[in-house]
Amino acid sequence: MNIGQTILDAASLGSLYALVALGLGLLIGVLRLINLAHGDFITVGAYSLIVPSVDATSFMLYQGWHWSAVVLMVCVVVIVLALVVDHGLFKPLRQANVGTLMIASFALSYFLQNAVMMIYGARPKGIDLWSSLGQGIEFFGIRVSLLQVTTISVTGLLLVLVGGLLKFTPIGIQMRAAASDFRMARMLGVRGNRVIGAAFALSAILAAIVSVLFVAQTGALSPTMGVPLALFGFIATVVGGLGSLTGAVVGGFLIGVVMTLFQSFLPDELRNFREAFTFTLIVAVLMFRPKGLFPSKTLIDRV
């Protein structure tokens, strides 16, 4: 067993879960919205890379474009989708309870999945996105791929940028105030719709980055590809503590570590059930820490 290889694989997998959990945690903190359609935002971002067609063969929409332009276009697509969804669906439900918001996001998730099937077809598609990043080098017995380095580096950079935005910028401070006490923040002059729109846009950027990194790793598209990511991201927010952005990130990395360890240490005949072992361990953790590792007192009081 190569411990260094396990740590690297865990950090790479946990990075994706941490970004998904952070995107979910932003909306949970500000809007009390558990956005079950977050995974479908990832799916839409991934499918925006190819030409709309129901054919089995996919063709890159941004063939020959610089990587930064590709990432920018995917971000624009997902941000526009998130803002349209906020304005058209969630804005009329601002005063609704948590259950209604969750059901609305559940319906949105199915709508987006079926919309993708109608436009692109239901069959999975292959896509060649920066496949050269998958080539690795041996370093002291550890196989390091450029894609793993990119994933971990991008995640670290985004966490720093999001943390800086929330701490030092006016809109970030307003988002933190709204997350602490939304009603009081509005009474003090914070524009609620503006803050919520910013939270949706920031969550969409994180979803777009995840979609690009995930497609680069798997080389495949399917209409439900974002659902498992959103599921593990949501579990990460619960394990970390609902409403705690720090907890969401830690929870994401923790789930990545646990799944990688199960993948490495379980006998071959049990490795296909690593998710079941992971969920069992999560249930055990929540029995002792039902509010998560970093519970947010303000969110618990509000909910």
TrEMBL record:
It comes from the Bacteria. One of its GO terms (molecular function) is L-phenylalanine transmembrane transporter activity. InterPro entries: ABC_transp_permease, BCAA_transport_permease. The chain crosses the membrane at residues 16-34, 67-85, 97-120, 140-166, 195-216, 228-261. Coiled coil: none annotated. GO terms for cellular component: plasma membrane. It is found in: Cell membrane. It holds the Pfam family BPD_transp_2. CDD domains: TM_PBP1_LivH_like. GO terms for biological process: D-alanine transmembrane transport; L-alanine transport; L-isoleucine import across plasma membrane. It is a multi-pass membrane protein. Keywords: Amino-acid transport, Cell inner membrane, Cell membrane, Membrane, Transmembrane, Transmembrane helix, Transport. Belongs to the binding-protein-dependent transport system permease family. LivHM subfamily. This is Branched-chain amino acid ABC transporter permease. It comes from Noviherbaspirillum sedimenti.
